[in-house]
Structures are given as structure tokens and as C-alpha cells.
Design goal:
This protein is mainly alpha-helical. The chain is built from eight helices and two strands. The chain has one domain. The model has no long low-confidence stretch (mean pLDDT 81).
């Protein structure tokens, strides 16, 4: 009769348990999958399915009893690693959301806000449009597969152990907020500059014709010009998307020590 020893059971459980926590934490926080539109049950099932597929590709796991203090510390470290990766991917996506906020505020659409069902916050319609566009582009270029490959490679550079990310990694993630603001400003800069010229023109008109109501005339024209400028800036959206997403993944690979 075939028997399983305690060591074999411990090795089998540990080999699937710890990667499951890292992958599931990533899916809980990353864009698209980690939104509120995807239920927690679906995220857990997806994390479990991906874990079953990628475990044969992972390095050997430490032989530590699953029901021990050391195992609890390892689980906490895996959750922190997964959350950190997902949070940084959120920063990459929100470059374009923030750019949409800049444009909407400048063209007078700041009041036209709507509830974002994915994140449960209120954003402008321009930001929601850019978020949908970025999501479709991310899926069309197999960005989700790149994320799975990245998390597989992270098990080589940051193997399952009680030691996780260092303080420098968290500092890089916090410093990426400045990168997000600067790239969002680059995306919105053509529209912002053009609308500034339109506003200056209205300023000159108000001085030359004081009897004209600039606010009544300027608001619809600024809104119309803003929509036209966004339309004309769409050809540059795809190169900007590839550039900034590649920069984001390079930073992510940098602090994962993945080459």
C-alpha cells in the first residue's frame, strides 16, 4: 500500500501554498483583474488556476511546515510582494487617468464626473475614456501574459523565504508618484498648451470688446476646442502608451532584479 509521509505532504503543500499567496495578492491589486467588477471568488479561482500552471516552472520551495511561525512570515512576505507589484501596475495605468483629469479640468469638463465602477471613485469622463482605451490596448498587446511572466521570474530573483523586498524597493515605489505626474503631464501637454492659447485669445477679446460676455461665449468654445484637440492628439496616444508602459515595466523589472 502506498503511504504519504509528513515530509512529502509538507513539500507538496508548501510548493503550491506560497506561490498561491503571491499570485493571488497580485491579482487582487493589479488593474483589470483587481477591480471591483471582478468578484473575490473569481480572483481566487484565477490565482489558483495560474498557480497550478506556473508551479512546475518555479525553483524549489523551502521545506518548512505550513503550520508554523516561519510559514506565517513567508505568507506575509509573499502577500507584500504581490501587493507591491499590483500597486505599481496601478500607477502605470493611472498615468493616463491623471492626464485625462488635467485635460478635463482645463477644458471645463471638471464638473462632468461619473462614477468609475472599476475602482469605486469619481473621475471625469475624459479620464474614464482614457482608462477604457488603455485597458483595451493592454489586453490587445498581451500585457496580462507579460504580468504572469514577470511574476514567474520574480520567484527566481526573490525566492520564497522569510526575506522579502528591502526598504529601497518601497522607496522606489513611493518615488514613482513623481514619475506618474510627469508622464501624465507629457500626455496632456499638447492639449493644455493649445487651450492656454485659446484662453489668451479670449483675454484679448475681452479687452477689445468689454461688452461681450466672455464666460458665456468662452465656455462652449473652450469645450469644443478641447474635444477637437483630444481627437487630433489620438494618433500620438499609441506611441505614448507603448513608451510609458515600457518605462513602467522597466522600472518594475529593475527593482525585481529581472534582466
Amino acid at each position: 500500500m502506498w503511504y504519504l509521509t509528513d515530509a512529502q505532504i509538507t513539500e507538496f503543500v508548501g510548493r503550491y501554498l506560497w506561490p498561491f499567496f503571491r499570485i493571488s495578492a497580485l491579482f487582487m491589486t493589479m488593474p483589470i483583474v483587481g477591480t471591483r467588477l471582478v468578484t473575490a471568488r473569481v480572483k481566487v479561482v484565477l490565482g489558483f488556476s495560474v498557480t497550478l500552471l506556473v508551479v512546475p516552472l518555479l525553483p524549489p520551495m523551502p521545506s518548512i511546515p505550513p503550520l508554523s511561525i516561519a510559514s506565517l512570515l513567508i505568507i506575509i512576505q509573499q502577500i507584500i510582494i504581490g501587493i507591491t507589484l499590483g500597486f505599481f501596475l496601478q500607477i502605470v495605468f493611472h498615468v493616463f487617468v491623471l492626464a485625462g483629469q488635467f485635460m478635463a479640468m482645463k477644458m471645463g469638463l471638471g464638473f462632468a464626473s461619473m462614477n468609475d465602477p472599476a475602482n469605486g471613485v469619481t473621475v471625469t469622463v475624459v479620464s474614464q475614456y482614457y482608462l477604457i482605451l488603455v485597458t483595451l490596448l493592454f489586453l490587445s498587446v498581451n500585457g496580462h501574459l507579460a504580468v504572469i511572466q514577470m511574476v514567474i521570474e520574480s520567484f527566481t530573483t526573490y525566492p520564497v523565504s522569510e526575506k522579502g523586498f528591502g526598504v529601497d524597493v518601497f522607496w522606489q515605489v513611493a518615488s514613482s508618484a513623481s514619475w506618474m505626474f510627469s508622464r501624465a503631464l507629457l500626455v496632456a501637454m499638447p492639449v493644455l498648451t493649445s487651450l492656454l492659447v485659446v484662453n489668451l485669445a479670449f483675454g484679448v477679446m475681452s479687452r477689445s470688446a468689454p461688452q461681450m460676455n466672455v464666460f458665456a461665449v468662452g465656455f462652449p468654445i473652450t469645450l469644443l476646442f478641447g474635444l477637437i484637440l483630444i481627437w487630433y492628439s489620438m494618433p500620438s496616444f499609441l506611441p505614448n502608451y507603448h513608451l510609458f508602459v515600457e518605462e513602467g515595466f522597466n522600472v518594475l523589472y529593475n527593482f525585481l532584479d529581472v534582466r
